[in-house]
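#struct-pred
JK: can someone run the complex with magnesium ion? inputs below
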Amino acid sequence: MSEVVSTRVSTYSRELRERFVTALRGVSEYQVIKFELCDESGTWHVGETVETPKITGDSHSQIMAELESDVIGLITGKEISEAIRSIEESNLTGSTKAAVDIALNSVIGKGVRQGFSIATDVTIPITSIENLPALVADRVAAGFTYFKVKANNEPTADLIAKLQLIEELTPSGSHIRIDANQAWDFGHTAEVLAAISDSGLVIDYLEQPTPARDFAALAKVKAISLIPIMADESCFTPADLTELIALNAMDLVNLKLLKAGGLTIAREMANTAAAAGIGVYIGSMMEGDQSLSAAASLASEVAPELVHDLDASWWAKESDLRYESGRLYL
Ligand SMILES: [Mg+2]
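RT: done, structure tokens with the ligand placed:
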């Protein structure tokens, strides 16, 4: 049985090829926090996290403080399964838990795997309609055929015009998903759904149209929608998942390691969701290669046939990961 012998924390910065803009935030460069732990054989295992205060509420300084102090006492000298449990049961932020849990899963062979590929969409950020042709051309040239279009609280006619243009600009057989990142209320969502229906546009799914904690609004949307509804920011914890299932508030869920607090809980949530007939997709924040690789490994474990949301490293100016024909290769 392996034990955690020591830990270390470092950071590196990641620059994006272009600004990533959603209804919640805009980002061009960010710090990746790298957490490593050494097992008894002297092997170092890596986990990563980032701050996403607008989404998780966890700040860089808080995560660093937790990794550099609290975590050491919780896992040092402990056997791995005990360390995993003690992180899971702690009051640490989800972003901190994720970094530690990814590294701990690596020790027991349930972390990042190599030698596989997984299909992913690519994000089209919020931008003006004039900028769309160049943005879409870049993504089509890179081989993507699934496009996640970030929406804002723009007039419905403007959104429809954008979606129609994207459909024209992408190869036939391409797929469009919409992610409103909580920007709409129920009334606006109903208006958009009706307009999509009238337009004849084919949309894979609509992700998180309404505010995160308003589960009733999401359930109302699902009740009227002909398009599958996905929960993202509404679903952080196993308790959220259980409540969303009970309310019949979603068809699909976007699980992320930084929301769930790592692989252990995300894996459990994926099983719970699948057992309830919910389609499980794995996504990520704008993260580093290591935590994205952990997310991709989970995606290929729980839903290898689906097209996930794992384009974060495509956005990075520098990455060791390879994207080809809409797939991420590890
Ligand atoms: Mg989302």
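RT: quick notes.
The mean pLDDT is 96.
The chain has two domains: 4-107, 117-329.
JK: thanks, will look after standup
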